[in-house]
Amino acid sequence: MSRFSQFAIAGTRQALRQSELDLEKEDRARVGVLLGNGIAGFENVGGDIDKVTGRRCTFAFFPWNWDRGDGCIIRLVAIADPKGSYRIEKGEKFK
Predict the structure, then answer these.
(1) Would you say 62 and 74 are in contact if contact means Cβ atoms under 8 Å apart?
(2) Which of 78, 67, 5 is nearest to 30 (CA)?
(3) In the predicted model, is pLDDT for residue 71 greater than 70?
(4) pLDDT of 4-62, one tens digit each?
(5) Which of 2, 17, 45, 58 has the most CB atoms at less than 10 Å from its CB?
(6) CB 66 within 8 Å of CB 72
(7) 86: how many CB neighbours lie within 10 A of its CB?
(8) For residues 14, 18, 20 and 23, what is the CA-based torsion angle, rounded to 10 degrees?
(9) What's the N-to-C CA distance of the chain in angstroms?
């Protein structure tokens, strides 16, 4: 289990203790802990990752739309640009 996952489990246990929630009376699908570290954790990245290791590139992440999911599978795409001129437009703010 990754270090970040271990922190998530410990943080969840601590939050549940402090909240004094009775999980037998709560809808468990609506109870959760949001834990952020400022850096996303990725496990099991595979495929052609060796082709971009050590190279400057832009990563794009495309997650599944998972209702009430706290994490999900993503498609990770590396965009290699030897000239360094590629930019992803900001787009419109999600509402």
Answers:
(1) yes
(2) 67
(3) no
(4) 778 888 888 888 889 888 888 888 777 766 666 555 666 677 778 888 888 778 788 88
(5) 58
(6) yes
(7) 11
(8) -30
(9) 35
